[in-house]
Amino acid sequence: MRPSIGLKVFTPEFKRMYPRAMIRFNFWMFETLSYDPQVQINGLLIINTFKNVTMWDQMAMSSMAPMSDQIATFQHFQILGLRFKGAYILHQPSIMTFIWTLARPFMSQKFTSRFHLCGEDYSLMKSAFDEESRKLLPSDLEGDAEVNTSGKWVMQHAENLVAASK
């Protein structure tokens, strides 16, 4: 996941026109992933990089979806029965580290052992993959795969969701 790409799609104008677009996109994304046999068997591993996200971008992200939509997305994730294998957050904003420090004592040991704030250190994330799987990581995540990170597919799906809602 690359929030810097999402910010290009979910502009203030777009959010005014389609205030529920983020929750619709999240539901679509997790629903689609739930049908993938590899995700069903092995679980979902989330890698989120905040690289090149400015402080202004961070402020804009906080208003992308209301808390009720974020909770609904989490509940949808649970209902689908997706197995959470882990999350690696790279270049996280300082506020995320602060919130995690406050929230961590209230989380289960199982969850906290699978959630990692890595900062600029990619080694922890890379250690979750065997040598063959590391080849699948995009080059911007210190892997070998050349992956299109332009975000055009995100924009296309967001436009499709909007068109379907009309």
Describe what this molecule looks like in 3D.
It is built from eleven helices and three strands. With 166 residues, it is mainly alpha-helical. A three-stranded parallel beta sheet has the order 1-2-3. The chain is globular and about 45 Å long. The mean pLDDT is 80.
What descriptors fit this protein?
single chain, 166 residues, mainly alpha, Phosphatidylinositol Transfer Protein Sec14p, three-stranded parallel beta sheet, 11 helices, globular
C-alpha geometry: globular
- Strand arrangement across the biggest beta sheet: 1-2-3
CATH topology label: Phosphatidylinositol Transfer Protein Sec14p
What is the CATH architecture annotation?
3-Layer(aba) Sandwich
The biggest beta sheet is recorded as: 3 strands, parallel
Number of helices: 11
Proportion in helices: 40-55%
Distance between the termini: 27 Å
Series of H and E elements = HHHHEHHEHHEHHH
Overall CATH class: Alpha Beta
Structural class call reads mainly alpha
Q: Could you tell me the mean pLDDT?
A: 80
What Rg do the Cα atoms give?
A: 16 Å
Poorly predicted runs: none
Strand runs, count: 3
Strand content: 5-15%
Number of folding domains? 1
State the fourth-level CATH superfamily.
Answer: CRAL-TRIO lipid binding domain
Summarize this, please?
The protein is mostly helical and 166 residues long. It has helices at 3-9, 12-17, 21-34, 37-42, 55-61, 67-80, 94-103, 109-112, 123-127, 131-134, 152-165; strands at residues 44-49, 84-90, 115-119.
